[in-house]
Write a structure and sequence with these properties.
By secondary structure, the protein is an alpha+beta fold. It contains ten helices and eight strands. GO terms for molecular function: DNA binding.
């Protein structure tokens, strides 16, 4: 419910405004409490000062095992809890192993304490050290290298390279979790955005782009898995066509990311529009490859069709990044 207050002048030069009593009570604000103000454009955010800024959360894991338990730990991490207590009447050996594996897959988390019925996990990474900008740039490098190596592994049927691509997907997932955690923190408190030195709208743009890069990495992983199913070399004309398709897709993703990270709005708009227009070229190239696949046996043609689809979708994700860059470069209302 929106409440309004009238600004008053006290002491001849000081502007004052009262705060709603209900909000003050819910947030333990009373006479003598210290509150913080955060300016953001033409808005001013107020928040109570919290002496202990580390947030704690607990979760009953009695009925959680395997992937469900892993997802629960990841959800608590992304939600922004700094100290996570997992509780049960008795935590099994398998649960402890799953918790340790989940913890190792997340940046900054370590198991702090273990007892018969609890496992305490703590985020040891200082929030000031986190950079959503750096994380997204790192995701870009890894995702694009994965896509390139996946296509090369297919061309050469290099199973070692394909398995390496699959392993690198974990690195992208870790960075994606970091980006999501930082972004949610900026939604929860204006102080997080101030510490990052970025407006919350920009954090949203980075988070949107990171999601697309995570999908590019997933499709590179899919191509690598499919590569392991081939026993005979791929026809050279199909390999060359796929290489051209990949180069177009990579250029679209690169241009989209360059547009997103550009400081000049005119340059960002130019790059983003070029990337979006190139997506149409991708569709045409993909159709030509599909025609080449008609001469192959159905099983191989189906596998290669899935790979063509993954490369094409990666280009689409680059187009989505370009769309985000256009929105970022647009005038702010």
């Amino acid at each position: 419910m929106v409440e309004t207050r009238k600004v008053q002048v006290t002491g001849g030069s000081t502007f004052t405004v009262s705060i709603p009593k209900e909000w003050a009570t819910e947030n333990d604000v009373s006479a003598g409490s210290v509150v913080e103000f955060y300016p953001e454009g033409d808005s001013l955010f107020l928040a109570p000062t919290n002496g202990d800024e580390r947030t704690e959360g607990s979760l009953d894991v009695t009925d959680l095992t395997g992937d469900e338990l892993t997802r629960a730990v990841m959800t608590m991490y992304v939600s922004g809890f700094d100290i996570i207590t997992l509780e049960s009447s008795r935590i099994t050996t398998d649960q402890r192993r799953t918790i340790r594996q989940a913890t190792q897959s997340l940046v900054g988390l370590e198991v702090l304490e273990e007892t018969r019925d609890t496992v305490v996990i703590r985020d040891l990474l200082d929030s000031a050290e986190l950079s959503i900008h750096t994380a997204v740039r790192r995701m870009r490098l890894i995702a694009l290298s994965m896509l390139s190596d996946a296509v090369e592994a297919l061309a050469e049927l290099d199973t070692d390279m394909a398995r390496d691509v699959i392993q690198r997907d974990d690195d992208v997932d870790r960075l994606w979790m970091v980006v999501s955690r930082i972004f949610r923190a900026t939604l929860r408190t204006p102080k997080a955005a101030e510490e990052l030195g970025l407006p919350r709208e920009v954090c949203f743009d980075y988070q949107s782009a990171a999601r697309q890069l995570e999908r590019v990495a997933d499709h590179a992983t899919k191509i690598a898995h499919l590569t392991l199913e081939f026993e005979k070399p791929i026809p050279e004309e199909v390999v060359d066509a796929l290489a051209e398709l990949h180069e177009e897709a990579r250029t679209i993703i690169d241009d989209g990311m360059d547009a997103l990270l550009a400081d000049d709005s005119d340059e960002a708009t130019r790059l983003a529009n070029e990337a979006r227009e190139s997506v149409q070229v991708i569709d045409e190239r993909a159709r030509k490859i599909d025609e080449l696949l008609r001469d192959l046996d159905p099983a191989r043609a189906q596998l290669l069709g899935l790979i063509v689809d993954s490369v094409s979708r990666s280009a689409d994700y680059g187009g989505n990044i370009a769309e985000t860059a256009l929105q970022k470069a647009a005038p702010t209302p």
